[in-house]
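Possible regression after last week's pipeline update?

I re-ran a chain I had predicted before the update to compare outputs. Posting the input and the new output here so someone can diff against the archived version. Not blocking, just want to make sure nothing changed silently.
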Amino acid sequence: MLTGGCQCGAVRYAVAAVPSRVHVCHCTECRAQPSLAFVISGIVPPAAVRLTQGTQRVRSHPTPSSKVLASAFCPDGGSRIWHRKAPDGAEMSVRGGSLDDPVDLIGACHIWTQNKLPGVVILPSVPQFPQDHD
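New output (post-update):
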């Protein structure tokens, strides 16, 4: 069982599944929200995720790839916790930084590399996709 929560501790969750894959996302939206060079996410089934403390706020918005994304975040501190292709995507992307234990990046793939920042080096042996990869 994976556990995690927001930065301020108001929201906690548990995941009863091992991520089917791990993405390192370089898209402009993922970079902008936490002001980072990229974001790490574990892909899990939505039914495996449950809140154990607090409440989340969800905001749906269009993405640069013309999809709609439902993003959950802490209403107190604003930390994003997960996102899901709306309205009822078959997979949920849990933010690696919100997990209590670090995400294993062995086997991770890099997506939206067409937007990666200069100076970010990805080894040639690592799977890379210029845009999304489902």
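Follow-up from reviewer: compared with the archived run. The radius of gyration is 14 Å. Marking as no regression found.
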